[in-house]
Give the backbone structure.
Amino acid sequence: MTWTWKLEDADGNTLDTPDSDLGSQGDAESWLGERWREFADQGATTAVLHEDGKTVYRMDLTPAEE
C-alpha cells in the first residue's frame, strides 16, 4: 500500500506537493506533522490523505486562533 498527501488551497485547487509516497498511515501522518506549518505558510489550507489513490480523510491546516 502507498500512502500519499495532496495539498489544496482555500479554493480547492491542488498545490504542488513534495513526494510523499509512504509505506504506512503512521509514516504519512508523521511526515505531514513535521511539515504542515510550512505548507500552510505557502497557502495550503487542506491536506488530503490517500491510500493507493483512495481518499482516507481530509485535514484542515489552518492554525488555531490563539
Remarks:
- DSSP finds one helix and four strands in the chain.
- The radius of gyration is 11 Å.
- Helices lie at 25-41.
- The beta strands are 3-8, 14-15, 46-51, 54-60.
